[in-house]
Structures are given as C-alpha cells and as structure tokens.
Amino acid sequence: MTSVSRASLLARLGRPSSGWANTPIVKGSTFLFDNIAQWREARTRRQSERVLSYGARGNETVYALEDAITALEGGYRSKLFPTGLAAIAATFLAYLKAGDHVLLSDGAYQPAKRLCADQLSRYGIAHSFFDARDADWRRHLRPETRMVYVESPGSLLYDMCDLPEMSRECRRRGILLCADNTWGSSLNYQPLELGCDVSILAATKYLGGHSDVMMGSVTTLEEHFQPLEDISVNLGQVVSAEDAFLVLRGLRTLQLRLERHASGALEIAGWLGSQAAIRTVWHPALPGDANHALWRRDARGGNGLLTVEFDPALDPERVEQAIDRLEFFGIGSSWGGYESLVLPIEASGTRLAREAEKPGYLLRLHVGLEDPADLKSDLERLLAALG
Predict the structure, then answer these.
(1) pLDDT, tens digit, for every residue of 110-134?
(2) Taking a C-beta distance cutoff of 8 angstroms, is the pair 157, 288 a contact?
(3) Which residue, among 343, 363, 344, has the nearest Cα to 278 in the 3D structure?
(4) Phi/psi at 20 (nearest 5 deg)?
(5) Over the chain, what HEC string results?
(6) Pairing of strands 198-202, 216-220
(7) Do residues 42 and 52 touch, judged by C-beta distance below 8 A?
(8) Quick one: what percent of the chain has pLDDT higher than 70?
(9) What is the pTM assigned to this prediction?
(10) pLDDT on residue 3
(11) Which end of the chain has less Cβ packing within 10 Å, N or C?
C-alpha cells in the first residue's frame, strides 16, 4: 500500500480514472477488432500482458477488481476465480507437479485438505501437515518439498504462523510459501509483506460482505505470476462481471465493517470467557490467547470469528438444543457477511484430535453487524438453557 490511508484507498481503488464513480458492469463474450492485424497483435500481447481479447480472459469490470485486490495485497497482479476453493486448487495446480510434496499447516481450510487427499494424490503430488505451534516445523520439510501452504490465523482455532521466519527458510531452500489470507481479508493481514510469495483469499467472505456472491482471488509476486496466469487460462477460470461488481461494491465499506465485526467479536469473546459453561475461547485478539503476541506483531486488526469450547461435562445434545433456540445467530456455513452465524466444529478436523483428553462441544461463532447487546442477550438465553 501507499502512504494514503486504507479508508481513502478503499474509496478509490478499482474506479475509472474519470467518469463513472463506480466501474460499470461490462457484459460480453466476443470482443471485436478493427482488422486481422489488430486481432493478431492482441493474441500475441495477451501471453505476457492483460489486454481485452475474449470474455474468458476478463473484461473492464473484472480487471478493476483484480487491480483493487492487488493494491490491497501489495502484490504484482491478481487472478479471480469462481470460489475460494477454486483459487486454492488453481494455486496447487499452477506450482506443483508429479513427484512434488506440499507441506500444509494443520489449521488449513478443511476442503483444501480434502483436495490434497482426493485429487493431488492421484496426480502423484504428496502432502503432509505440521502444527503451526511447532517451533521445529522445518523437520517436516522434505527434499521434494516445493510448497509450504499455510492459513494464518488458521481455520477454527486461529493458530498463527511466524511468516517472516518461515519465508527466510523457504527462500533459502527454493520453496514457494503460499498463504490463505481469507481471515485477514487483504486489510488486516499482509502475507506478501510478511514474506510470502502467493496470497489467496475467499472474496466470498469479508470482501463481498453481504452473503450474496462467491469468489476467490490469488495475488502473487511478479516472478510467480505466469504459472498462475497459465493455469487460469488452461482451466477456463473466469468470474462474471456482475460478481466482480458486487465485490468492488463491498470493498467500499470493508474497513468500516471489519472494525464493527472486530469490536463486537472482541467484546463477546471476553464476555464468553467469563461464563461457567465455557471452558475455552479461541480469538487471537484476546490478550490471553496463545497467538496474541504474533497477532499484535503482524496483524492490523481483527474480525468477527471466534470459537468456544463448552464444559466437557455438558451433554452435546443438550448444547445443540440450546443452540437451536438462538434468534440472532443463524446456523449456516461461511462467514464474513453482515449476519451473525454459528456452526458446530468436529474436533477430529482440528489439532485437538491429537490430545489425550476429548474436548467439550466446539462451536464457531461469526459476530455480524447486529448490536452486540442483542447478540449477548441471545447467547445468554443459550447459556441459561444449559443451567
């Protein structure tokens, strides 16, 4: 980013240099040329630069969003994909080949783990995991490791990686360091600034912000962009102009929304930590969280996510009956929209599965834009139902 404030950047990124305040929605598949020479020139130039040539290669609306995300992420260029998982898959396929190994943090998005097990393994690409809390994470690297893939803070328990330290080791060994930045949403966390080569995010979440669009993005340093461009073209990955417009619109209020999500989540996380029915609260912005020091050093803010563990003595069925009584918290996948959500977590999909003691019932909360007082009242009804 430049020295201009983030709020000012968000008001201007992706806008035309003159004319419309908002980039218009450009729809079209066929781009017409004046003559054959112009057509040939465009086809030659598009191998190394971005030019209008065909709808599957993007248009003005899509390019505007790519440029805005690139500026926020601090990279060279970005590519857009229909979903966050599509962006992850394209990243794996762009940089890995048969015989390679990818090392993932165990807090990575569960569908990304399934992608490695179900698809990459069939292509001869090996994978394994490491605990983000392991100071000796290097011992998991292999001679054939070509990528380290992290999510920091990680899904569900929000463990953080020391990206600057990891990047030094990866660059020394010629290993690509990729980060899922969905939690940081381009604004609160800057993986490329911290030493990563590739930053991926689900624009479905906070960038869109209104639970009405699906999209993923990948931003890279200049030396790593061409393989991403190639895989995007070869797999026919493109997003609609309407969806790009919706995410551009969401960017205008991104900082305001994140500040509201973060303040509400921190208030509720602190309050839940004092309740007898709750044994553990995971939220990196909490001073008592194990990841708080790294969060303070590397992040610029928080968001609306937190996870709680109920007292193991509580019957899970009873907990779920109480959850069903919530009024302001919806039950649904995803997060990052304006609405508050809850979703049960299976301990088997987290590092807690390796611990000797079985954890209590796990529940992820996304604190939306509702009044925190109303959300607390809702949660108080849940806790009261548990006695």
Answers:
(1) 999 999 999 999 999 999 999 999 9
(2) no
(3) 363
(4) -60, 140
(5) CCCCCHHHHHHHCCCCCCCCCCCCCCCCCECCCCCHHHHHHHHHHCCCCCCCCEHHHCCHHHHHHHHHHHHHHCCCEEEEECCHHHHHHHHHHHHCCCCCEEEEECCCCHHHHHHHHHCHHHHCCEEEEECCCCCCHHHHCCCCEEEEEEECCCCCCCCCCCHHHHHHHHHHHCCEEEEECCCCCCCCCCCCCCCCCEEEEECCCCCCCCCCCCCEEEEECHHHHHHHHHHHHHCCCCCCHHHHHHHHHHHCCHHHHHHHHHHHHHHHHHHHCCCCCEEEEECCCCCCCCCHHHHHHHCCCCCCEEEEEECCCCCHHHHHHHHCCCCCCEECCCCCCCCCEEEEECHHHCHHHHCCCCCCCEEEEECCCCCHHHHHHHHHHHHHHCC
(6) antiparallel
(7) yes
(8) 99
(9) 0.95
(10) 67
(11) C
Instruction: Respond yes or no on whether the N-terminal peptide bond of residue 316 is cis (omega within 30° of 0).
Output: no
d(CA 298, CA 301): 9
Task: State the helix-helix crossing angle for 254-272 and 372-385, rounded to 10 degrees.
Answer: 30
Place of tokens 């009405």: 212
Residues 6 or more apart whose CB falls under 8 angstroms from that of 137 comprise 130, 131, 166
CB 104 within 8 A of CB 131: no
Q: In whole angstroms, what separates CA 382 from the centre of its chain?
A: 29
Dump pLDDT digits (tens) for 229-288.
999 999 999 999 999 999 999 999 999 999 999 999 999 999 999 999 999 999 999 999
pLDDT band at residue 19 using 50, 70 and 90 as cut-offs: confident
Q: List, for residues 136-168, the tens digit of each pLDDT value.
A: 999 999 999 999 999 999 999 999 999 999 999
The end-to-end CA distance of the chain, in Å, is 50
Question: Average pLDDT over the chain, rounded to whole?
Answer: 96
Q: How many CB atoms lie within 10 A of CB 249?
A: 16
User: Which residues are CB-contacts of 242 (< 8 A; sequence separation ≥ 6)?
Assistant: 25, 27
